[in-house]
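Session log. Operator J.P. requested a structure for one protein chain; no other inputs attached. Running the standard single-chain path with token output.
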Amino acid sequence: GTCPDGKYGDTTSFTCQDCDSSCSTCSTAGSCGCTACPKGKILASLLDTTSPPSACVDTPLCPTGCTTCTIDGTTCTACNAGFYLNEVSGTCGDATSCPPGTFADTGSGTCAACATDCRACTSADASACTFCVDGTFLDTSAGTCGTTCPDGTFVTALECGADTFADTPSKTCAASCPAATYDAGGNVCHPCNPQCTACTGRLWSDCTACAATFYLSGTTCVPACPAGKYPDAATRTCKCPTGCKTCTDANTCTSCEGGYWKTADSKCGRLLLAAPACGATVAEGTANASSFTLAFDAASGCVRIGVNATCDAGKGGQCCVGASAPKPPKFSHLLFTPSGSVCATNAELKNIK
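Structure written below.
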């Protein structure tokens, strides 16, 4: 026969002897012969599989929030009311402790999985998403995640990663703002005004490049250039040649910017430092080697102001001197007298015909 609980069979006396007081049941005498333990105790061999025939030791406490846990007390298997079991980590926490892709399910008391593509949700339904995984976008009206936003909606920065921009026209996330959009801040790209192909803001006056049939005038795209500018089809800009303040086309200036003077062929020439030096003496009738005439400007010294001129000086061929005896240069194809330019009384610049 067998001995009742609390006793073991002594093979020497062939009688049932009492187990050690620490055991519920035992196979041998002593505290290390237990085979079952009273409430609140556990066999040490269950905690350490390398242990010999076991003694009963205090049962490890379950982690905070656990109703039940594994026998070694390290992993929760059920949670107290108001706590939710994270089945991956084996811990119990409040609703905010559920990891991404799960939600606090009050019915099961666990962190249950959201629908596919949901990073956060309020239930397991596909229409309960509140945040989406990277590469998908939340349709807030339907509570679903998809690869694009539905018509009439746009992607926001919340759905894009930290290093990408929410491209509202294409409803996608991009590494940088695409053409015809601008960085509106917060990793969001907004479309430019329809007249612009590039811009710094949403206004019609924030353009930096224009769509076909429009031309950039300052920072505004216009269908026709204002008076004094011509439309350049290649660059889609309203412009004038260098030095021109106003013009009628790429070759005809009607007025010049400051520091430029209008020539007979409707160009605008700029004052440049001259060579030879002001006051240099050359042989009478010698054409200027660099094909410009010399005159004196109070601010700049000796400067270039014309083309193909010869020195026609009565004394020594000195074409340009300082501010003595003002006399405007006489060369027929230059229709202006630069302010401050003078030639010596006996020196005259004459255009080569």
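Operator note: Confidence is low (pLDDT under 50) at residues 271-353.
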